[in-house]
From TrEMBL:
InterPro entries: AB_hydrolase_3, AB_hydrolase_fold, GDXG_lipolytic_enzyme, Lipase_GDXG_HIS_AS, Lipase_GDXG_put_SER_AS. The keyword Hydrolase applies. This is Alpha/beta hydrolase. It comes from the Bacteria. Belongs to the 'GDXG' lipolytic enzyme family. It comes from Mesorhizobium argentiipisi. Keywords: Hydrolase. The active site is at 161.
Length: 318
C-alpha cells in the first residue's frame, strides 16, 4: 500500500504548481538552468557554517575544472576522511551552489573534507564527459591528498539523482582501478537509462520529476541509444557489482526512480557488497535538497553519514 505524501513533499509540490513554470522539456537546456537556478534557493534551508570553504581549479580532461572544498567543523587538519560529492540535475542542470547545503551537512556531520566538482554538463558535453571529469577529481584526491589535508585511503563518493548515477559508476571504476573507496552514498540514483521500471508509470506525473522530463535529461546526456546499455550510463547493467565500495542507498517512495534504486540495492546485496538501504515512503524525488520545508532532508544525510561510519572503522579511532 502506498504511503501518504509527507507534509514536506506536499508543500514542495504545491509550491511547484503555484509557480506555473513550464516543464524543462518544453524549452532549451539554458532556459532549464535559469529556471532551476532561480528556484533552488527557495527550497534549501540556511547555509550551515563550516570550518572553511575554498575554491580550487585543477586540470580536467576537458579543460580547467572548478572544485569547491569544504572542511567540516571538527575535521582533522591532516589525514581527514573525505567525500567526493557529485551534484544532481539530470546531467544537464545543477552547479556548485545548487547542492551547497548538502555538502556543508556532510562536512560537519562526518566530520570530513568534502570536494564538490563543477563537472561538465550535457548537451554541450555529452557522455562520457561528466564521468571523465569526476574520475579526474577522484584521481586528484588520491594523488594529491596533502594539499587537501585528507587521507588518500579514506575517500568516499556520494551523489543524488544523476550525481548518484555518477557516484555509482565511479565506485565501479575505482574497483577496477584497484583504488577502493570507503563508501558510496547514493540518494535516489539513476541506475537504468532504459527508463522502463514500473515506478515510471506509477509516479510519471504529479510528483515533481516526471517521466517526460527524465527522458529529456537522458536524451541530452547520451550520444545515441547505444549508450543506454553502457554500464557507465546504466550501472544496473554492469556484469557484476562485486567488489564495489560498501553502499548506502536512499529511496523516495513517490519517485519515478524508486524501482531502479530498489533494484540496484538488491544487486549490490546479491553481489556481496555491504549495503544499507533506507526508504522514505512519503517523499518525492529530490527531497534531500528541500531542507527549508522539513527535517527529512538533513535526516537523510545523517543516515548516510551513519552508514559511512559503519563501513569505515577508522572513524572510531579519530
Amino acid at each position: 500500500m502506498l504511503s501518504p505524501l509527507d507534509p514536506q513533499a506536499r508543500k514542495v509540490l504545491d509550491l511547484g504548481r503555484e509557480a506555473h513554470e513550464p516543464p524543462f522539456e518544453t524549452g532549451t537546456p539554458e532556459q532549464a538552468r535559469r529556471a532551476y537556478n532561480n528556484g533552488f534557493r527557495g527550497l534549501q534551508g540556511e547555509r550551515e557554517p563550516v570550518a572553511s570553504v575554498r575554491e580550487q581549479t585543477i586540470a580536467g580532461p576537458g579543460g580547467p575544472l572548478n572544485l569547491r572544498v569544504y572542511r567540516g567543523q571538527g575535521a582533522a587538519a591532516a589525514d581527514a576522511p573525505s567525500l567526493l560529492y557529485l551534484h544532481g540535475g539530470g546531467w544537464v542542470i545543477g552547479n556548485l551552489d545548487s547542492h551547497d547545503e548538502i555538502c556543508r551537512w556532510y562536512a560537519n556531520l562526518a566530520p570530513c573534507v568534502v570536494v564538490s566538482p563543477d563537472y561538465r554538463l550535457a548537451p554541450e558535453h555529452k557522455f562520457p564527459a561528466a564521468v571523465e571529469d569526476c574520475r579526474a577529481v577522484l584521481a586528484f584526491m588520491q594523488d594529491m591528498p596533502g594539499g587537501l589535508g585528507i587521507d588518500a585511503s579514506r575517500i568516499a563518493v556520494a551523489g543524488d539523482s544523476a550525481g548518484g548515477n555518477l557516484a555509482a559508476v565511479l565506485a565501479l571504476l575505482a574497483r577496477d582501478d584497484k583504488c577502493p573507496l570507503t563508501a558510496q552514498l547514493l540518494f535516489y540514483p539513476n541506475t537504468d537509462a532504459d527508463q522502463t521500471a514500473d515506478s515510471y508509470r506509477r509516479f510519471g506525473e504529479g510528483f515533481g520529476l516526471t517521466a517526460a522530463t527524465m527522458a529529456w535529461f537522458r536524451d541530452h546526456y547520451i550520444r545515441s541509444a547505444a549508450d543506454i546499455n553502457d554500464w557507465r550510463v546504466s550501472p544496473l547493467k554492469a556484469d557484476s557489482l562485486a567488489g564495489a565500495a560498501p553502499a548506502f542507498v536512499a529511496i523516495a517512495g513517490h519517485d519515478i526512480l524508486a524501482d531502479e534504486g530498489d533494484a540496484y540495492a538488491r544487486r549490490l546485496e546479491m553481489d556481496g557488497v555491504p549495503i544499507v538501504a533506507k526508504r522514505w515512503p512519503g517523499q518525492i524525488h529530490g527531497f534531500v535538497s528541500m531542507g527549508r520545508h522539513g527535517p527529512a532532508s538533513r535526516q537523510a544525510v545523517e543516515a548516510a553519514v551513519a552508514a559511512w561510519r559503519e563501513f569505515d572503522p577508522a572513524f572510531d579511532r579519530v
